[in-house]
Design goal:
Blueprint: H1 2-20, H2 24-39, E1 48-56, E2 61-68, H3 74-93, H4 99-103, E3 107-113, E4 119-125, H5 127-133
Parallel strand pairs: 2-3
Antiparallel strand pairs: 1-2, 3-4
Organism: Flavobacterium nitrogenifigens
Protein name: Lipoprotein
Amino acid sequence: MLKRISQIAFAIIVVLTVVSCKNTKQKLQEYVVTYNKNIAPSFRAENVKLTTARGYINDDKIELRFETDLEQNEVNKSASVISFPKLIKLMIDKDEIPRQLIEEGVQFDVYFLADDNTVLDKETLTGESLKDFLK
């Protein structure tokens, strides 16, 4: 009788473990919702006026956009190439961009946009490029 109860308990634990495990696509979708609901409204960075996330489940890709109040010109573009990677590293360190998703194969395309929505800088985070950001 005790052996039978142990087997049933073990089976229940296994089922709960399997059910509670999320696959990468579910984590991607959950991250986008959480980012837009919790991180974006309170996000503060110099010159950033708005940030949003968009998920592409079939491509295992997340797009993060940072809209700024900067004009599109060479001075701002050059400054962005230096400051934007620092912002990304800070977000990775604070787990606002989760390493786990990147390590699971999710690609992050991160855009730093001028006030006219043209690209000042773009960074792509993958498992390989993550090492460069963490230096």
